[in-house]
């Protein structure tokens, strides 16, 4: 065949003539495309998929379809522990920082509310609850910043050891100090305030209180991950030296990440002390420092929904494992489930779901008839 003729035959079409494979697919109009619409409304419209709305409906219907025990013991506790694990997921998943001090930060917030607020212990100062909550959030966030400032200059196992050492130090401080922390007895009857005539420690109101803050933490982390700060933090996670060469202050970004994670953990710490109705040194012991890490890894560290899935599985095992095995050996069952999930999926439950969905797609593509 003549080369010149082949070249003529392959001349591109004119601009006015669209290629035969070009198809115009109508898309759903964005009702919030107007620049005057609130940013949070645009964010919800563009980032909340239909499956998210289904999950939201299930969460709203759950307390009305189950008993008060499941609503409070399983639902509310899973949301609170998931919120603490979310702070760890933010540090590790987006910042590449593995901290074992998130339960310590939550414990600082809980102790501050108990000390400054009202409890059955005479040490409590009895301040108004809004003031106690503001101080608890501020002090816990400051403690998280201090932990970050001391640990961000290290990486890997050294960061884990430093944060673990700080958590253990706070445990022994609370255990041995009777003037401020009331020693091993801690603080009893630390309840949420009566607001709008509602007893917020009742199963139904407390569940929706935890759900509101859990959703706020989830969407806050999703939003920050897409913000310039979150993108820079992920760049630091991938290659800190290159980001430093580009002019980013790596240490400042990591300390700021500790501040964000500390605030999330502080909110969860206040909810946790209201859930338990008390706080003792055992609430911030080494076992709970490890449990938060187990919850985060169990669910998955690459998406904000992972910590809540891990918390749900952890709470279910913790609540009902005693019905399967001996009461003194139920931790063995929890550890076995954790090892099985981690061995088969390093990304946790989210990794299992992703691999299962990819396998189903491959099978569907193989069995589907050729067109």
Automatic annotation (TrEMBL):
Which coarse location class applies to the principal site listed for this UniProt protein? membrane
Q: Where in the cell is it found?
A: Cell membrane
Note whether Transmembrane helix occurs among the keywords: yes
Q: How does it sit in the membrane?
A: Multi-pass membrane protein
Would the keyword Ligase turn up in this protein's UniProt record? no
UniProt-annotated stretches for the region Disordered: 1-22
Q: Which residues cross the membrane?
A: 52-72, 78-97, 104-123, 129-150, 157-174, 204-225, 246-272, 278-298, 305-324, 330-353
Which keywords accompany this UniProt record? Cell membrane, Membrane, Transmembrane, Transmembrane helix
A Pfam family cross-referenced in the UniProt record is: BPD_transp_2
Q: Report what the protein is called.
A: Branched-chain amino acid ABC transporter permease
Q: Which organism is it from?
A: Ramlibacter pallidus
Q: What is the lineage of its organism?
A: Bacteria, Pseudomonadati, Pseudomonadota, Betaproteobacteria, Burkholderiales
């Amino acid at each position: 065949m003549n080369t010149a003729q082949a070249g003529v035959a392959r001349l591109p079409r004119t601009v006015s003539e669209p290629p035969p494979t070009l198809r115009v697919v109508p898309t759903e109009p964005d009702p919030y495309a107007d620049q005057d619409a609130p940013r949070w409304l645009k964010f919800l419209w563009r980032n909340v998929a239909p499956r998210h709305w289904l999950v939201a409906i299930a969460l709203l219907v759950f307390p009305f379809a189950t008993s008060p025990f499941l609503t409070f013991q399983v639902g509310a506790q899973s949301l609170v522990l998931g919120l603490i694990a979310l702070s760890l997921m933010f540090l590790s998943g987006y910042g590449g920082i593995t901290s074992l001090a998130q339960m310590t930060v939550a414990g600082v917030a809980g102790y501050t509310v108990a000390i400054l607020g009202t409890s059955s212990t005479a040490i409590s100062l009895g301040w108004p609850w809004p003031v106690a909550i503001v101080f608890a959030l501020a002090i816990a966030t400051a403690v998280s910043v201090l932990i970050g400032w001391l640990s961000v200059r290290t990486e890997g196992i050294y960061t884990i050891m430093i944060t673990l050492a700080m958590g253990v130090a706070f445990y022994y401080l609370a255990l041995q100090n009777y003037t401020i922390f009331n020693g091993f007895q801690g603080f009893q009857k630390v309840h949420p305030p009566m607001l709008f005539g509602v007893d917020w420690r009742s199963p139904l109101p407390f569940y929706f209180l935890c759900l509101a803050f859990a959703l706020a933490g989830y969407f806050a982390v999703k939003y920050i991950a897409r913000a310039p700060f979150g993108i820079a933090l992920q760049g630091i996670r991938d290659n800190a030296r290159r980001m430093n060469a580009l002019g980013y202050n790596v240490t400042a970004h990591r300390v700021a990440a500790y501040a964000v994670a500390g605030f999330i953990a502080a909110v969860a710490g206040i909810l946790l002390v209201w859930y338990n109705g008390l706080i003792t040194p055992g609430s911030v012991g080494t076992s709970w420092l490890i449990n938060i890490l187990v919850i985060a890894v169990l669910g998955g560290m690459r998406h904000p929904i992972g910590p809540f899935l891990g918390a749900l599985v952890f709470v279910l095992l913790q609540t009902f494992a005693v019905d399967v095995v001996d009461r003194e050996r139920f931790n063995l069952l929890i550890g076995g489930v954790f090892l099985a999930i981690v061995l088969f999926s390093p990304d946790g439950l989210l990794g299992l779901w992703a691999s299962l969905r990819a396998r189903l797609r491959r099978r569907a593509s193989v069995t589907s008839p050729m067109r």
